[in-house]
Amino acid sequence: MHPPDKKPSALARKEMLSLLLLPRAYICRFATAETAFFLALLVIVSSCSSTSIPTTNIPTATPGIISTLAPTSTPTPTPTAPPLGAVPQDCPPGPRLQNIFTDIIPVVGGSPVWAAGFVGPHAILHVGNGISTQNNVYTQHGWYRKILWRVSTNSPSPVTLHGGSLHDGTPLWFQIGNQDLTLSPVLDPGNAGEQPWTSFPSYIFIPQAGCYYLEAHWSSGSWRITFAAGL
Question: Of 23, 137, 205, 220, which residue is 20 to 30 A from 172 by alpha carbon distance?
Answer without folding.
Answer: 220
